[in-house]
Amino acid sequence: MGQTMMMMIQTLTFWLSEHPSIVGFRWSHTQSWGSTWSFLFGSIALYLTLSLLLHLTLSLLLHNHSRPIPLGPIPAIHSLTMALISATIFAGTLLSAAAEIRDTRWLWLRGRSSRLRTPLQWLLCFPLGTRPSGRVFFWSYLYYLSRFLHMLRTLFAVARRRRLSFCQLLNQSILTFVSFLWLEFSQSFQVLAILSATLAYAAVYGYRFWTALGLRGACFPFVVTCQIALLGCNVACHVGVLTLHLMKGGCNGIGAWFLNSVLNAVILLLFLNFYVKMHLGKKKKKMKSVDGPGGPRPVGSGRF
């Protein structure tokens, strides 16, 4: 039993971090699909256009009908697929980061930047001159490609409610753009960002699949809690990158990191705005249920 388990672990490790395609990966505009700036902006423009067209079409054709369009098992299948993809990218990134630290740690003893190189500092701050090649950048590339699958959820939301959320459009576009910057400029901090994001996505999409099957949901806002934890982790990592860059001699891709920080701040503001509106909306509903049609009533009297 123990030997079988060990063989399974070795096989999994090989396919997630030691396969020649993973070890020999190199981000290239000529060899990597979707690696050009024109593709990036074209795909984001297509995403925005399709979302807008679907919203306008449903609004014009079904303006007298309030029922959402039935999508059947498609959203549940999408949630399950995204949960599995996110879990795979998380495991691959974790194993690949451990392998990179193991294989290249001896290089950290050379050169002026040796004082930077501890495992945690490497995760936050790539050495200057780092190129987008190797294990962790392979999984960063797959994470970038998975962003286009995340965009499908916007189309599902429009089909269900026929409302187009500006916040969702901007959030998906920014996250896709940021994941491209990670690869294009070998940006520091991306390993921890991918690990935290894919862990949160695996939990959120797994939860959505669970509830789509009709099973009981959590007694607290599970998705919002995961989003808060992810945003908090990102803020802490950004502080760590800035500290290492200023005190330890510089981090690779700091210009892209600065733009990444600005875009993440936009996402944070959008989330806080959404959370405040959601909280106020629940409070108003609660007040209406307490007041009732006949005016205010004490909380302990009658039914809500």
From TrEMBL:
InterPro entries: ELO_fam (IPR002076). Signal peptide: none annotated. It is found in: Membrane. It is a multi-pass membrane protein. It comes from the Eukaryota. One of its GO terms (molecular function) is fatty acid elongase activity. GO terms for cellular component: endoplasmic reticulum membrane. This is ELO family. The lineage of its organism: Eukaryota, Viridiplantae, Streptophyta, Embryophyta, Tracheophyta.
